Amino acid sequence: MPELPEVETVRRGLEPAMQGARIERLELRRPDLRFPFPEGLAQSVAGQKISALGRRAKYLLIHLENGQVLICHLGMSGSFRVEYGDGAETPGQFHIARSRDQKHDHVIFHLRSAGQEPLRVVYNDPRRFGFMLSTSGADLHDHPLLAHLGLEPTGNALSAEALATMFANRSTSLKAALMDQSLISGLGNIYVCEALWRAGLSPRRKASTLVTRAGQPTPRAARLAQAIRAVIAEAIASGGSTLRDHAQTDGSLGYFQHSFSVYDREAVACPRAQCTGTVKRVVQNGRSTFYCPSCQR
What we know:
By secondary structure, the protein is α+β, with helices and mostly antiparallel strands. The chain folds into 2 domains: 4-142, N-terminal domain of MutM-like DNA repair proteins, CATH 3.20.190; 160-291, Helicase, Ruva Protein, domain 3 (Orthogonal Bundle). Helices cover 22% and strands 21% of the residues. The chain has helices at residues 4-18, 41-45, 160-167, 174-179, 189-199, 219-237; strands at residues 22-28, 50-56, 59-64, 68-73, 79-84, 105-112, 119-124, 131-136, 280-284, 287-291. Helix 1 (4-18) packs across helix 6. The longest helix has 19 residues, at 219-237. 39% of the residues are buried.
């Protein structure tokens, strides 16, 4: 499932085509995806201008001028593509096979911007695990999907002090704490594994060990905060990870997976200089964790 960097890559790819454009028509080719489409969705957005494209954790947010917000999730296999003019070609080239079968084109935004040719933004989803819901901007932060979400890991707000506040008195593993969306939103398995390796911290370490008895962050907390911010920023800059079904909106794929240090590298030598260890895979809370037992303590 796409993680935060993938969704941010999609947002940035869609923004030039969608922001400021007017929705001439929203074409829904089926009654539902993972969930039914909101009743009257196509009628409510017709004629509306897209004022902004945002993101919260792994959700893409399409803000309309009437205050309505579409909450979109890509699920396991969802993707957007931009089609210009009358042609059906998708800009860019796929490096991993993607669905172009029109039977999986479930939602089409027919858009027009002032002085520009009409274009289409197509949502394709073979497995139909994605969804599109609607709410008002005033109710957005209280929406059941968003209300519980924690701190975004993309800015300086994710600090050693913030981690200390989150982890104080927590007996869960560091991996489990980082995957808790109510603490840090949008972090998924891939980037948690990578950040823990960069920080030299074992995923099995108790989260509370990053906090002193006085409630202050330890040097480990400072290393981890920096590692999380860095790995997320680099993944966004590289276009996401491209594992399985993810692709950017122009059809191309990012290359951050080429920089993975431990994720999906079981039995491979640890790439850290001076470390003679080997990457190991363990299962925590039903998810695979990749780490180096020699240098992650």
